[in-house]
Write a structure and sequence with these properties.
Elements (H helix, E strand, L loop, with lengths): L21 H16 L28 E2 L2 E2 L2
Antiparallel strand pairs: 1-2
């Protein structure tokens, strides 16, 4: 007789980056949750992350169009 074991697989899922306004986030999460439910998957938690802020480019003396990062006319 075969031996069966009850197992549960837990995984993390990441969506592509989306640019949303605050009032659009809840509906986006609900839409994603519905898609997962169709696959018999449950959402246990949601964690929003923001990409790190980009640093402005360092001024270069080699740039013929600017002087120390400021435009030259």
């Amino acid at each position: 007789m075969p031996v069966f074991r009850r197992i549960k697989i837990q995984a993390s899922v990441e969506t592509k980056a989306m640019l949303l306004q605050d009032d659009q986030i809840e509906s986006a999460v609900a839409e994603f949750s519905d898609k997962l439910r169709h696959l018999d998957l449950d959402v246990l938690s949601v964690e929003a992350t923001e990409p790190p802020p980009t640093q402005p480019a360092e001024p270069s003396d080699d740039d013929p169009w600017s002087s120390r990062g400021l435009p030259v006319e």
